[in-house]
Amino acid sequence: MKTVTFDEARNDFERVFKWAAGGETVVIQRQDQSVALQAFRTASDPETAPAGYFAKDYTPEEAAELNLLASQSLHFRLP
After folding, report:
1. Cα separation of 37 and 27, whole Å?
2. Lowest mean pLDDT: which of 1-15, 35-49, 54-68?
3. For 22-37, what is each residue's pLDDT tens digit?
4. Contact, 69 vs 61, CB < 8 A?
5. What's the chain's average pLDDT?
6. How far apart are CA 32 and CA 53, in angstroms?
7. Neighbour-count burial for 50-71, b at 16+ CB within 10 Å, e otherwise
8. Which residues have a Cβ under 8 Å from the Cβ of 17 and sit 6 or more positions away?
9. What integer is the mean pLDDT of 46-66?
């Protein structure tokens, strides 16, 4: 984690941005206020979880019932 002042961040924002984009958390301080700048990563397909993600949460019977219900539901593509 890197900490910079507000003035440092303003004067050299490109460098601060590169740190954050590279995975570093950058804390920007201004008087008694602090904010954290972090990279925001999105899933490639936010509609689905990786295989096995919920494996410990449901019994095989519960999973089968949920899969059956899901297969019978209406499917709409989000905009």
Report:
1. 6
2. 35-49
3. 999 999 999 999 999 9
4. no
5. 88
6. 41
7. eeeeeeeeeeeeeeeeeeeeee
8. 37
9. 82
Residue 63 is given by DSSP the state H
pLDDT value, residue 79: 65
44 vs 59: CA distance, rounded Å: 28
Question: For residues 30 and 49, which has the higher predicted lDDT (pLDDT)?
Answer: 30
Cβ contacts of 24-27, under 8 Å, gap ≥ 24: 25/1, 26/1, 26/2, 27/1, 27/2, 27/3
Written as six digits, the tokens of 43 are 């899933």
The fold adopted by the segment(s) 2-37 is YefM-like fold (3.40.1620)
In the numeric block, which tokens belong to residue 52? 């096995």
